[in-house]
């Protein structure tokens, strides 16, 4: 052991760490934290307002201009409500669970590049003589941190339901964790495609790769295009399921489960779950922007005002525009699509998303290997797609015959269930 | 700095390990196990094995312990267990003996391979750690270069295990004549 710790690939932290470095890092953490909290507040208002518009009603109107302070009013109300802990609950775990779902949302956001000039400086900014990135941390494991946090977030949901000591929350949480674990596989496979084309795990490197010269001068080199749209669709669907957002919000299916895993929660603890849900939505959108939509890269339209470099600020602007579009799409999906049934959810995850993501990943790998060896790209594509189609056909047949066998067995099991009929 | 991180991780791991053994509630034991695993991940980071740390959290904390919890919750054994009766005769004295043997082995390994006071390892084991590449790259080269066959065999083993599990559920359903517990239901 050499006694030094590699905390991040951020150039600022590579050398000696003095007061300025510590203060800069602290400032970044505080800004990201404050941004997330304010963004959640605005997101809840935005979602309600937008849903209202799509439902032909007004949404929140009273608190503040356009009802913008509605979330704050709700938060204060929840804060002053009675905090109930059920008698049969496991007290410590019951109190721990909300934090277990809140903290991963914060931590995952740390790896998102928020701005910077990716046209000429590869995302570096220079402040007080220190060259650094506009993201809280750029750990060597990069995007794996996001996957790790999304798997830790399962604990919050699972333990909340279990520790309530009540049936419906338990059912809700078992259902939720099954869903989240299932879709994590598809999520990971979609991320693997990005890692393949980037050649690394660092989120900063991913944005740098996407900021490179695009096709025909106008089409950007974003991963959504480079990886051929399929991983993006898989990631978007799996991400929505991971967030337990509609149309995958079976976790809180009111008709079946009263209120889902947080039925027994009240007051500020309930608010924490709510906060975590929206924070996860924002974090997931930010990750999608980073992985597929080029992150903060984009043209710097006005690079300087009065000798004051502004190129990095354009990164922030582009990042927010992309984030906003994605958040709009999340709300749009919620307003449009009805909730899935549980078996449909599992079928979609295991029989459609995972095979498609895996097949596409292998296809991208074949292309990459072909490029390295100098094979004919068209031939590689045709052969890969043929294999892909063959495998898909095989899978469809297997699923169909499995379903037929299940139906037959169910029919056979139904027959002798009536003993009178059996004797006769 | 490194010593401080090691101390924190060690305390976390030891407390977690004691908690796993001492807690009566299986869910609490599983949570203590997660604490131990996070401590191990910290130690990996301390040794610049970032990828292993991430995988530790994703696979062990994120999948395996979740599976434990799942089974505990589905079986409904989430209340404190009756510990006075021994389900298997002679289990506890045997466990004590094996535990003592394991401690002896570990103690011997530590005492013979390391300078106990300075903590410096005597045996050289740093062949795979040279070079400028990141730990992911080095591990990839070793796994898919030197040990490619072992990786393939492991993959085949896992596939066989999955197929075996599916076959077992189907056959059990048929011989009972009862309603099949199809994999599609969960």
Structure description:
The complex is a heterodimer of chains A (424) and B (186). By secondary structure, chain A is an all-alpha fold. In chain A, 65% of the residues lie in helices and 3% in strands. In chain A, the strands form two sheets. In chain A, strands 1-2 form a two-stranded antiparallel ribbon. The longest helix of chain A has 38 residues. The N terminus of chain A is likely disordered. Chain B has 186 residues and is an all-alpha fold. Chain B folds into two domains: 80 residues, Four Helix Bundle (Hemerythrin (Met), subunit A) (Up-down Bundle), CATH 1.20.120.1200; 57 residues, no CATH class. Chain B contains six helices and no strands. Chain B is globular. Classes of the chains: A mainly alpha (424), B mainly alpha (186). Chains A and B meet through helix 4, helix 5, helix 12 and helix 13 of A and helix 2, helix 3 and helix 6 of B.
**Number of separate domains of chain B:** 2
Taking the sheet with the most strands of chain B, its summary is: none
Instruction: List segments of chain B where confidence is low: pLDDT < 50 over at least 5 consecutive residues.
Output: 174-186
State the oligomer: heterodimer
Give average pLDDT of chain B, whole number.
79
Distance between the termini of chain A: 80 Å
Order of helices and strands of chain A: HHHEEHHHHHHHEEHHHH
Task: Give a quick summary of the entry.
The complex is a heterodimer of chains A (424) and B (186). Chain A has 424 residues and is mainly α.
Based on the model shown, name its key terms:
heterodimer, A: 424 residues, mainly alpha, two-stranded antiparallel ribbon, 14 helices, 4 strands, disordered N terminus, B: 186 residues, Four Helix Bundle (Hemerythrin (Met), subunit A), 2 domains, 0% strand, disordered C terminus
């Amino acid at each position: 052991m050499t006694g030094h710790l590699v905390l991040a690939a951020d150039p600022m932290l590579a050398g000696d760490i003095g007061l300025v470095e510590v203060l800069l890092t602290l400032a970044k953490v505080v800004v990201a934290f404050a941004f997330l909290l304010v963004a959640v507040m605005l997101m809840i208002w935005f979602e309600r307002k937008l849903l209202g518009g799509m439902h032909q009603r007004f949404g929140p109107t009273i608190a503040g201009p356009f009802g913008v302070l509605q979330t704050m009013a709700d938060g204060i109300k929840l804060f002053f409500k009675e905090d109930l802990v059920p008698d049969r609950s496991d007290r410590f775990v019951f109190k721990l669970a909300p934090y277990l779902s809140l903290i991963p949302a914060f931590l995952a956001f740390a790896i998102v590049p928020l701005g910077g000039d990716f046209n000429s400086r590869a995302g570096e900014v220079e402040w007080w003589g220190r060259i650094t990135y506009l993201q809280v941390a750029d750990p060597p494991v990069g995007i794996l941190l996001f996957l790790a946090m999304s798997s830790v977030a399962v604990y919050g949901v699972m333990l909340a339901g279990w520790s309530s000591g009540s049936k419906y929350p338990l059912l809700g949480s078992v259902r939720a964790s099954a869903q989240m674990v299932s879709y994590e596989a598809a999520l990971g496979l979609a991320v693997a495609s990005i890692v393949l084309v980037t050649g690394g795990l660092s989120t900063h490197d991913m944005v740098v790769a996407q900021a490179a010269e695009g096709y025909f001068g106008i089409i950007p080199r974003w991963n959504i295009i480079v990886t051929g749209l399929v991983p993006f669709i898989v990631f978007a669907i799996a991400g929505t399921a991971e967030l337990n957002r509609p149309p995958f919000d079976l976790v809180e299916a009111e008709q079946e489960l009263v209120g889902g895993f947080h039925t027994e929660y009240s007051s500020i603890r309930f608010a924490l779950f709510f906060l975590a849900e929206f924070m996860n939505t924002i974090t997931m959108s930010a990750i999608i922007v980073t992985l597929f939509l080029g992150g903060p890269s984009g043209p710097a339209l006005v690079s300087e005002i009065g000798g004051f470099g502004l190129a990095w600020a354009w990164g922030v602007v582009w990042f927010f525009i992309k984030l906003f579009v994605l958040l709009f799409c999340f709300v749009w999906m919620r307003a449009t699509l009805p909730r899935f049934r549980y078996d449909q959810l599992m079928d979609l995850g295991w029989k459609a998303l995972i095979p498609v993501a895996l097949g596409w990943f292998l296809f991208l790998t074949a292309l990459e290997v072909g490029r390295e060896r100098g094979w004919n790209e068209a031939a590689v594509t045709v052969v890969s797609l043929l294999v892909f189609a063959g495998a898909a056909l095989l899978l469809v047949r297997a699923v169909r015959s499995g379903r037929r066998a299940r139906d037959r067995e169910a029919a056979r099991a139904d027959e002798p269930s009536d003993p009178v009929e059996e004797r006769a | 700095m490194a010593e401080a991180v090691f101390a924190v991780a060690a305390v976390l791991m030891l407390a977690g390990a004691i908690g796993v053994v001492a807690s009566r509630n299986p869910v609490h034991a599983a949570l203590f196990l997660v604490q131990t695993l996070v401590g191990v991940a910290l130690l990996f980071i301390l040794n610049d094995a970032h990828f292993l740390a991430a995988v530790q959290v994703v696979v062990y904390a994120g999948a395996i312990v979740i599976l434990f919890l799942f089974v505990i919750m589905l079986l409904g054994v989430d209340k404190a267990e009756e510990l006075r009766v021994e389900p298997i005769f002679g289990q506890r004295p045997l466990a004590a003996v094996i535990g003592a043997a394991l401690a002896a082995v570990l103690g011997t390994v530590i005492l013979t391979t390391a300078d106990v006071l300075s903590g410096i390892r005597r045996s050289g084991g740093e062949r795979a750690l040279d070079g400028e590449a990141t730990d992911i790259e080095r591990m990839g080269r070793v796994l898919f270069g030197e040990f490619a066959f072992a990786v393939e065999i492991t993959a085949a083993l896992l596939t066989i295990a999955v197929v075996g599990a599916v076959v077992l559920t189907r056959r059990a359903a048929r011989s009972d004549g009862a309603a099949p517990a199809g994999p599609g239901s969960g």
